Amino acid sequence: MATTDPTPPSPPAIRAQGLEYHYPDGRHALRGVDLEIAAGESVALVGPNGAGKSTLLLHLNGLLPGGRGAAVSARHHGPAPASPRSRRAPSVWIDGLEVVDRNAREVRRKVGLLFQDPDDQLFSPTVLEDVAFGPLNLGMGKEEARRLARECLERVDLPDAEDRPPHHLSFGERKRVCLAGVLACGPSVLALDEPTANLDPRGRRRFIQLIQSLPCAKLIATHDLEMVLEICPRAILLDGGQVVADGPSRDVLGDPALLEAHGLELPLSLLLEREISARDRL
Amino acid sequence: MSLDDFGSLEGTNTGRGPLHRLDARVKLVAAVAFVVAVAAVPLGSWRALGGLGLILAVLIVLSGASPLRLIGRWLGFLLLVGFLAALTAGGRAAAEGMSWGMVVLNLLVKNSLAFLMMMVLAEVTPWNKLLGGMRRLGAPSILIATLSFMQRYIFVLGDELARMLTARRARSFRSRGGPGFAMLSSLIGVLLLRALEREERVHAAMTARGWDGTMRALDD
Predict the structure, then answer these.
(1) Given B47, B92, B126, B191, which residue has the most CB atoms within 10 angstroms?
(2) Chain B residues with CB-CB distance to A under 8 A?
(3) Model-level pTM greater than 0.95?
């Protein structure tokens, strides 16, 4: 399927070319992924479990090639690898900046990575300290970091949570604190891993609205196809470490045979829509 | 195991009495000084121990801590200490020319004074403030970070363990008795593996937000 990219005047927010990755145990996780995402664009990354979605997201941040945390974070259920051996594949660019160790600092400021489990990301004793973690690492002064952290907490609608221990927050609240911590770094690209998983309907709704209100480019790895239809004009289907389809979400997610072949199913809303229009035609 | 045991780690006990408002550094130094004093009292100096006990009693009253809770925790600890004291008292008794029982009693009292003082410190100082105090007193940042992570993840791991225990109970049909030894050891193994995996993910999340190996604190 053809990409729907308009030719952007500035370099694309995300560009990956021939991205390869092997897990430390030798499994081939990404087999030459090519994709390009324009500034401000919202793109969904869909595909079955083990397709390489999380691995791809970690690559945006340069967390895998040569990094110590290699591969583990990408697999939620797999065993920890014995050694962090990995092959270098510097084939990702963020805002035109190549993702290599030399640029790690700048790249990590640009890419905000939201993990699936908020407990992995929310490691400080209090909420405010956690949100200020990124700014402090980026060299911001304490007072400035504190102010920015408060501002970000307000943006995610949690202005009173700053002194609370993370253990006392609900899952949805923790998720929003994580987002605040990511926003505090001032990213131009957001990489979200299953942002709506495990949220109750109200929490999901709030989170979707929040994501939608952010102007950054977004790459959203998810199984929540209804959300994709709602907020992502474009979807990329990944399976076996390869891009299988890339196009308007309604086309990619509206192809039952394609979806079936890659462990997904037609979203209910599209199914009903078709049934209704078929009945109208009768 | 009950997570209530970690209640004083929660950091929610803020500002009730005069001791709560004191600078954490002052409390920390005073408490450690007290413990050193207790340890320095020679065996058999009951009067000195009594004096220190009096100070402790005053502090307990000032702290507003529930004595019942303190005593409950202290009793749990007492068993272990008593066992160790009974094991080591023989040699000391011979060297100091005191009876074995007196030495055990002396060790127990000294231990209890030190332990209760630390309990009171925990009662009147939220965990974060305590760590902040330690940091400002120049404790190594790696130690502070370790303690801070421990406080954050002890609940997460505790919840995980509780879920595993529930799942195990749901499939076991023994009506009485706790989990067997074999089951408990396998659970602990699984918990350890999960903690390791989580450590990798937390590390990745820290790196993603620009962490370069230095822990930076928000307050100084």
Answers:
(1) B126
(2) 10-12, 127-128, 131, 148-149, 151-153, 155-156, 193, 196-198, 200-212, 216-220
(3) no
- From A50, A75, A49, select the one nearest A64 (Cα to Cα): A75
Residue bearing tokens 């809770």:
B69
Distance from CA of A277 to the nearest CA of B (A): 46
Q: Is the dihedral of CA A73, A79, A80, A85 positive or negative?
A: negative
* Pairwise CB contact (< 8 Å): B200 & A108: no
Q: Provide, as residue numbers in chain A, all residues whose Cβ is less than 8 Å from the Cβ of B149.
A: 123
Q: What are phi and psi of A36, to 5 degrees?
A: -140, 130
Mean pLDDT score of chain A: 87
* ipTM score: 0.81
Report how far residue A237's alpha carbon sits from residue A248's, in angstroms, rounded to the nearest whole number: 11
| CA R_g for chain B | 21
Contact present, A136 and A143 (Cβ < 8 Å): no
Q: How many domains does chain B divide into?
A: 2
The answer to whether the CB of B205 falls within 8 A of the CB of A193 is: no
pLDDT the model gives residue A155: 94
CATH topology of domain A14-120+188-203+214-281: Rossmann fold (3.40.50)
Q: Are residues B70 and B103 in the same domain?
A: yes
